[in-house]
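Instructor's aside before we start: the two examples that follow are unrelated to each other. I chose them only because their records fit on one page, so don't look for a connection. First example below.
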Amino acid sequence: ALESIDFRNALEQFQDLVEKMIIQKTKESSGLYTEDGDEIDYDKFYSTTRTLFGPAVKDQNIQAFFRKIMSNPDERPEWPEIFGCFTGEMDGMSSPSKESMVLLVSEKQQITHSVVKRKDIIKGIVKVPLLDLTITASQRGVLTVFNKQRKSFFSYSFYFHQDTAWITGCAYLPNLKYVVAVTESTIILWDYKSKDSKSDGFVIKPMKNCLLCVCTVTMADNLAKDTILMGDDKGYVYLLTITSDDFIMKQSKTGKVSQFKVLDSESFDIPKRKLHDDWVGKIKYFSALKRFGSCSTDSINSFVLDDIKRLEDQLPVKEFSVPKGVNAFTYCGKAKVIVTGG
C-alpha cells in the first residue's frame, strides 16, 4: 500500500493535473486556447495518473474521470472517483472482497437465506452489535436470528402461529438473552439459544389492546432483568420489566400456545399511559439521552420525548405537534439532533 506521505504528494500532483485540464478545456470552449507542449490529452492524463497511483487505479475509472472533466469542466469531480469509490457497480473486480490499496470501502453482504414465504413480509429488523446478531420478525410469525461467524451467516428460525395474530415488531433482551416480539394480543419471548428452539419460550397474554411496536430499554446495570416499551393502537405506551424469576413463578395453568409456556399478563405490573390519540407507530429508547421517544399520526400529540418515569406518574410530558403526525424518527448523537419524518 502507498505510504500516507507519498499518497499526499501524489494527490497534490493529481489535483494540479486536473486544474490544468480544466483551464485548458475552458480556454478551448472560449476559443482562446493555443497549442503548446503542455497540452494534456487522454494519453498524457492516463500515463501521469498511472505513474502517480500505480495499480491502485483501474483503466475504466481513469477513462470515466477524463470523460467527466472533458464533458463538463465546470462540475469538478471529486478525487475519490479516480479510485471508483462513487461508482454504483464494481466493474472489473474479480472479487468483491478485494481491498483498494488507497481507500477501504465498506461492502454489503446479501443474505440469500429465505426467512419468509410467499405473502409474508418482514415487520421488524433489529441489530445487536455486541453479539454480531441480526434479528428479523415476519408478519406471519417467523422469527429468525442471523449470527455472523467465520464470514458467513448462520440462522436459527422458528414459526410462531396463534390463530390469525400477526407479529407487529421485535427486539432483543440483552440481559436475559431472549428475542421478544409482539403480536396483536400477545408478547412472545423466545430463547433462541435453546437446543429445542421450537418449544423453549414463553407467551404473555392476554393483552387488551393491539400491540404495534416494541423496543428494549438499555440500562447500565447488568442484572438478570430487562425492560421493554410497547405501543398500541389506542395511543397507550406500556412499560414492562421481566426477570428470570418470572419464567418460573408466573406460568399460567392454561397450558401452552404453539408449544410455548403461557405467562399470565395479569400477574405482571405493566404501567401504561395514554400519550397519543392515534396508533403508536414507533417507539425507541435513547440510552444517550436517557429518554424514550414515541410517535403517532396524531396531529396534536405527534412525538413524545421523555423519561420512562413519566409512564408511572401523571406529570406532563415533553411533546411536539406536527401536522398529520409523525411516522418515523431517529437520533444522531454527533449532531445532537432528533429528526422526524411525517
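Example two begins here.
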Amino acid sequence: VHKSKLDFFCKLGYGKQDICKVLENLGPEALEDDVLKELIRMGSKPQAVESQAQPPLLKLVPRGSCSTAPGSKWLREDESDSSDCLRPIVIDGSNVAMSHGNKEVFSCWGIQLAVDWFRERGHTYIKVFVPLWRKEVPRQDSPIADQHILEELEQQSVLVYTPSRKVKGKRVVCYDDRYIVKVAYEADGVIVSNDHYRDLQNENPEWKWFIEQRLLMYSFVSDRFMPPDDPLGRHGPTLSNFLSKRPVPPEPQWQPCPYGKKCTYGNKCKFYHPERPQQAQLSVADELRDNTKLLNLVKERKYKHSP
C-alpha cells in the first residue's frame, strides 16, 4: 500500500522525501485525498510544475481586479499549445457512439466526430476503446451505423478493441471501462465519456481523484461534438486549460464599483472606477502613509513661510 501511494504521487510530480514524510505522519492507510491535502498544506509542489518556464515578472494590479490564486504557476500567454503541451485523449467509444445514436444505434460516425474535434485542436495521442464484438456482423437487437469507420480508425492506430471471446456459445467480454481508465491514468490524460465510472472509483482509490478531475463530458448537437467550456464547473479551469499540460492564466477581470460616481470611499474603494483612469495601485495602508507625509510636508512649508 505504501509503495503504491508513493508511486502514485511520484507520477504527479511530488518529491519522494515529502511523500514519505506525509505518509509517516498520516499512516500508510491514509486516503489519497488526505495525502494530497497534506502535501499542499506543506507547500510541496509537483516538480513538473516547477520545471516549467518562469512566469513573467509580477505587475502591480489595481484594486478591484481578480488575481489568480497565490502560489499557482502559469506559462506566459505567448507560449501557444503544441502537441507536446496537450494532454493525451482516451475516448470511451461505446459511450460516444451510443450517445450520438440516441442510445438506440451504435453510431460510429459519432466516434469519428469526436476524434476529428481533438485532431483539429492539435492532439496527437488519441485512443478510442471499443469491445471486439462490435467488429462482428451487427445483430438486429444491437444495430451499428457506419461500421467501416471502426476499421479505418483501427488502421490509423487510433481505435483499440478490448478482448472478447466465445465460450460454449456464450460471449465473454472483458470490462472495457477498466482499460479506458487505466490507460488514461497511466498516460496522465483525459477520459472522454458521460459515464462516471463509480464502480471503478470504489474499486481503486488511486483512480477516484483522477476520474473526478480528468473526466470530460460532452454533448452532441446534431452532428457537432461539444464538450463544455467549464469541464469542472464554473469555478474550475477553462476547456483549453483542462486539455493542456501547461495552463494559461485567465485575463484579470475588473469589478466595477456598484456605487459608480456616487461612491464616497475615494481612493480607499477596492472596486474599479472607469472615471478614475489614474486609480491608485498602492495598498490602502501605503496610500495613507503617503497622504500623511504629503500633509506633513504642506504644514511644514506653511510654518516656514508664515510671518
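The chain is about 40% helix and 10% strand.
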